[in-house]
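Convert to structure. Protein one:
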Amino acid sequence: MLSPAVLLVFVLSPAATEPTTPSFQTAAAEVLGPRAAVRVETLAKPLPDAAALERGGTAEGIVELIWSPTRESVLVHCYIASQGRWVDRTIRFGGNDLEVERGRLLGFAVASMFSAAPGLEQAAATLPETRAVGVAPEVPSQPPVTAPASAPEERRSFSAGSPPGSLPAAATQPRRSLEFSAVAVPDFAGNLNPEFGASLALRWALVDALWLRSELSGRLGEVPTAQANLRRALAALGIGWDALALSSNASVNLRADLLGSWLQVAHLSSDDVERVHQQRWLLGSDAVLTTAYGISAATAVYAGLGIEAMFGRTYVYTHGVEVAVVPLLRSRLDLGFRSDF
């Protein structure tokens, strides 16, 4: 009796129990044939490639399915044993797609990458009456989605709401994120106390990992040498980039913004009848590196560290004497949460 050809699948999902697994197994078995064993294991974090190969043993194929925190996309990291190489694909889904539809489309797309592998191709023609191992009951089949394995670096998008085999012009619905964070701006080696405040930002997805971002923020601080309070309001417009996925839940993001700033310094001393206010407008920019961690399918917490630069120094005088300078460059610390919708 011939041993079944094995396709080993590792699933990394933000959900405690991945709801697409049964329909994924069924669809993959329909494409690979009745003697192909589709075995699924759930992992807490991605395996190094060498460890995945060791764990897979003689399997014809090894697959890692890494779901995004928003469940709008899944990274398919495949090893095709007959070709001795790894292949990556990104499959995207519409926001209203049912889990069973996502699982079936994903199963067709993954299995079609292995359908021509010698071991699986032979298995499909050997024992037509043998059922696949560990596969849920069959549902009506759909034609497989073809995802060629000739270009490992190519990234394709599929929509579960479109006919299998098609690549729609808009594979996903518009994505947006709302961010709220606490902000601290220390002045190392300067003569200002740290500024503390909060920011509110809205992001719109442009392409796969690129975002358009707008922000409004306000901060308060002190200038001890001038016995003055400092107030600052900022508006920002910039670009965000999801630079690196550390795991299914964690990622590294980089953003850069153009800033418009209103700065006010208010001074009151014992010889002043009333508080003296001085203000000015400034342009500037910032660059912030953040690390985000998904705590649910649509929510993440993040921390950021960056640099904020104003295109001009601000000199503070009291009674005609310079007592402080608001510098060009200052560091910036962010701590907040993000909600996708």
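Protein two, convert as well:
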Amino acid sequence: MPVKLRLIQPFVLAGIALIAFSSTAVAATTYHEKVAGVEIAFAPNGCAQGVDASSFAGGASGDVRGNFTATICHTPLAGSAQIKPGGLFTLSGQSASGQPIVPVTGHFTGGSVEFIGAGHFGTFCFQNFRVQGGLVSETAPTATDGFLGVLTHYGTWNGSSCNVTFATVAGQATITA
């Protein structure tokens, strides 16, 4: 067999092995988290022009013990709102076993915000909203994950309406990365 043909066979086998190795994906991890946080004043823009942005930061507990940040793009909140695709989220910290995780980042795919109730006591008032949205990470863009929680606005009651001064969010998120 000529030398050239003897050299081709190892290169072909090496190429096949390289293709097989590179196409073997690392298994995705799905994180189930409880999150709770407060609305923060800083709202980095990642939303389309004319769409409102609300940013939150807080803690996460579950498969990851750490923190989360989220910027949610939405239509104006007038009893209800639509969560628009875009925005950003980050989950970072350590696993339940204490090992640091690579921060999980991604965006929202859409969702809704629906009014569920309000009340006031003296000059204190609150408004509760059910929030449901889709999440997709940068590393697992085909996963169908999401968030379900309660957004609460707090403020002062002026006798006829609640003048909101801050907000919190609490709920559960599932994120595959």
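The chain is about 10% helix and 60% strand. The two ends are 50 Å apart (CA to CA).
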